[in-house]
Amino acid sequence: MRRPMIATIAVMLGITALVGCSSDAKTSTTTTAGGGGGGGITVPAATGVPVSLTAGDKSATEQFFTLAPASVKAGQVTFTFQNTGNRQHEMIVLKTDTPFDKLEIDAATNKVSEDSSVGEIAETDAGKTVVKTFDLAAGNYVLVCNIEKHYGQGMRVAFTVTP
């Protein structure tokens, strides 16, 4: 009687371990708390070619993105998105051949179209860092913050993925 119960528990633990280890093949996310004092909990993201994107504010009407490197090979790309600004920012990955500073801004919303989006890092509070991995095909991309007016105020950068 005792052996079947032990076997059942072992099978249940094995299934739980497998379910707990499954992940989305396209993206994974790590969030690290920012701010003073000692950091937060870091959960590993899928391994990919590392890319750093820093978002910040120069003034109330001028923001920026700083990207390194600006080009990587196709496949898994892990973005570390650091918001050094004083308000929320985001990163939308748009696959497009339109130059990074020539996307059409909708007059009603003060945003660009996200129709060509292949993924994003959602609104991130000031002082926070988010890490997310995307599976990117070769092509031209534009990384934008599409919070109202931010694209027009400088939050955009070209990004290339080579074969």
Order of secondary-structure elements: HEEEEEEEEEEEE
CATH topology name = Immunoglobulin-like
Q: How many angstroms does the end-to-end distance come to?
A: 59 Å
Helicity level: 10-25%
Number of helices: 1
Domain count: 1
Descriptive labels:
163 residues; Immunoglobulin-like; five-stranded mixed sheet; disordered N terminus
Describe the structure.
With 163 residues, this protein is mainly β. The chain has a single domain, classed as Immunoglobulin-like (Sandwich). Helix content is 12%, strand content 46%. The chain contains 1 helix and 12 strands, in the order αββββββββββββ. A 5-stranded mixed beta sheet has the order 1-10-5-2-3, with no helix packed on it. A 5-stranded mixed beta sheet has the order 4-12-11-6-9, with no helix packed on it. The longest helix has 20 residues, at 2-21. The model is unreliable at 2-28 and 30-43 (pLDDT under 50).
Furnish the topology, listing elements before pairings.
Layout: H1 2-21, E1 28-32, E2 49-59, E3 62-68, E4 71-73, E5 75-83, E6 89-95, E7 105-106, E8 111-112, E9 117-124, E10 129-136, E11 139-144, E12 156-162
Parallel strand pairs: 2-5, 4-12
Antiparallel strand pairs: 1-10, 2-3, 5-10, 6-9, 6-11, 7-8, 11-12
